[in-house]
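Backbone shapes recur. Consider a single case.
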Amino acid sequence: MELKTALDLLVACAERWEVLDVILDTWSLRELTSVIPHRTPALKKIRIVDADAKPHDLNLFNSSAPLNHLADLSIFSHVSFHTGRPLPNLRNVCFNSVDTLDVIDCLSHCPCLEELVIRFEDWSHGPVPVMEIKLPHLRTFKATLDEDSDSGYDIKIAQLFENIRVPHLQTLFINFDRDPENGLTWVAVQNLLRRVDNTLENFEMWTCMSTPLEFGRCVELLPRLKYLACPDIFLHNEDVRACIFRRKLPMPCPNLTTIRLIKGHGSGTLDSYMIIPPTLFSLQSRMDLLKTTRRTPVLDGGFTVVVWEDAALFVRHYANRLPGIKFLDLDDWISRRKHDLYTDVGRAAWEIN
């Protein structure tokens, strides 16, 4: 069957679409999405991947034909949106290759969003407007920016971070491959952390976009933090260990029960392994102090350390000496937390292990 014939057949039954999940060229995508939303009242999930990455429009927010059942949206395409009516049922959104200005256009129509994943790319040269985007139900936000991305994008990304209001954010994953000297994005992340300091429970930062000490000082301001992931090289810094694993009261992050060491460049060398024992002993001392003072009940089940596969064999040598610490390799950790931290939303956009 020719592609044109197949597309015609699909369009003919658009009224029955509940899931649209396609990887096509730009022309074919335009043909399929041209019937959205006025002929697709039953749509619950959209995932479109444009193999050509050429610009096209997606009319999701047409007020005369609202997509009342649409809950999941994943776009891997250079797409623009028309303004219109918000979609109160939209819960999960993933953007890959969508311009920052178009991301803002879409987010302003998603008042009930719960999980958001963005792989930043920019196509336009226009500035990001200063505006307030309220996402009161957002629980999870993951953002990534490739190393080879133009540094000129950073001001747009920083403004988007300043625009969003996420009063109930619980999980934040950041992978911005930027040097500490390029401070725009790090300042934006810091400001966001200050706004969610009383709600954030899970924080992953994948790269050394800040200095180690700045990172440590940020983390110690998150009193509800339960899970922390950071590059292993950060823990080479004694000041960082002192910030996060302070062994005197008041203790930062009293609810912290899990830390993950992210394998960075050079991990697997003797130096990277040698930083693990001081980290473990600092954790054990911290646990002993918390238990002695009975400041928190959350450590009754012990503390969990998550490491990359090669390091898992190394840390298990310490299992008998540190009975309060459990060790997990990465695959085991991810499988245990697929229901909340590692859902399928935006999995392809967040191409990190």
Remarks:
- The chain is about 30% helix and 20% strand.
